[in-house]
Amino acid sequence: MATMGKYCKAYPIQKLRQFSQWTENADNTRKEKKEVDGKELEINRELTDDDFLYLQENYVVTDGIFKDENIIFDNVTPEWVDFCKNILSFEILVYEPVQVQTSSSGQGTGKL
After folding, report:
1. pTM over 0.85
2. Where are the domains of the chain?
3. Tens-place pLDDT, residues 45-60
């Protein structure tokens, strides 16, 4: 079953390709349905300069929002992390928990 991380950010593939040690595992791209000779087939999509990929919280790049599926790049090195932070300005956002205040009676007003 696919695992969704707590944070990821989409980047144009052109920006990711600027990393000097960038490699792509094209065999892991998402599947697309195509009709060939009257039959519907699922084939790996081809990545183009117009595509977006997802940089996950663990610095792995995926072709989709799930952090353990369609992994395109997983060579996480200090150089890659530095590139992500300094060139892509990637930072994992931390959300503070929201405290909900209730009325003293514990019930809402019933008004909308």
Report:
1. no
2. 8-86
3. 899 999 999 999 999 9
